[in-house]
Amino acid sequence: MKQAIQLLKQVDLLGMITSLVCLVHCVLTPLFFLGDTGHSHSSSIFSFHSLFLILAWTAVISAVRFASTKIRIGLSISIVLLTVGVVFEQVSMGFQWVLYAGSIGLVAMHLLNFKSHHQH
After folding, report:
1. Helices 42-64 and 69-88: angle between axes, nearest 10 degrees
2. How far apart are CA 46 and CA 26, in angstroms?
């Protein structure tokens, strides 16, 4: 049982770290390209976003198996928001806010899940 709890803590740490790195990336990347209207970065960003989504989905799928119902719902909503934000951010800048909300939600839910396993 201790090994299972340790694994769950690691999954939540992976989720928190991935979500934080994703959030930092999404906030800072536009600043690097500010004023550079001729630069296209969609192919490299696509693979970076894909990596974030794969790691985030892996952490969520692993974490929800042993999470409380409230945390499951929070993780599920957050990962959907993150995915929708990443997929549609090129359509409208408003989707960046959806992406930010999903990323912050994932950090919060993984942190709550981590704390709930830490109590055991």
Report:
1. 170
2. 12
